[in-house]
Amino acid sequence: MRTYEVAFIAAPNTVDDDLSKLNSQIEQIISDRGGKITKVDNWGRRKLAYRIGKFDEGVYTFVYVEGSGQEIAEVERRLRVTDFIIRYLTVRTDEALKRAVKLKSKRKVSVAPRGHDDDFDLDIEVEDEEMD
Questions:
Q1: Which residues fall within 8 angstroms of residue 115, CB to CB, at 6 or more apart?
Q2: In contact, 96 and 17? CB cutoff 8 Å
Q3: What pLDDT digit, counting tens, does each position of 8-17 carry?
Q4: Angle value at C-alpha 70, between 4 and 60, nearest 5 degrees
């Protein structure tokens, strides 16, 4: 199973009922095609980084999906034809998670904790020199 993050921005004048209906449609599409939604994260209204069309703000929603990839094509098609969606982006996250786990395990091996024998003796003995 692959994991995906689907992010979409709705127009700020979108009714909450329309957004909840879209979220339920997305959930239905994914479950019908054998996928599973692990998390839905609604960020609410935020300022956009740049103006998109005539909008300076948007309603952000993130959907985290586990599936084969076939359901993502239908979700993207549905987002593309929905009038109040101004941007969407799908990112496959399983490869990044595998890389992160691999790097973390390499760090544990290369930065192993030092044992008691590796402690340095920091006591510095200074001999007094006699001045002539």
A1: none
A2: no
A3: 999 999 999 9
A4: 40
Instruction: Name the CA dihedral angle for 6, 76, 24, 91, rounded to a multiple of 10 degrees.
Output: -10
9, β-bridge pairs: 60, 87
User: What sign does the dihedral 64-67-73-75 (CA atoms) show?
Assistant: negative
Question: By percentage, how much of the chain surpasses pLDDT 90?
Answer: 60
> Are 86 and 9 within 8 A, CB to CB?
yes
Q: Which amino acid is at 42?
A: N
At 18-42, the pLDDT tens digits run 999 999 999 999 999 989 999 999 9
| Percent of the chain residues past pLDDT 70, beyond the cut | 82
- 14-41 in b/e form (b: 16+ CB < 10 A) is beeeebeebbeebbebbeebebebeeee
Strand partners, 45: 59
**3-state secondary structure string across 58-113:** EEEEEEEEEECCHHHHHHHHHHHHCCCEEEEEEEECHHHHHHHHHHHHHHHHHCCC
Q: Are 19 and 61 in contact (CB under 8 A)?
A: yes
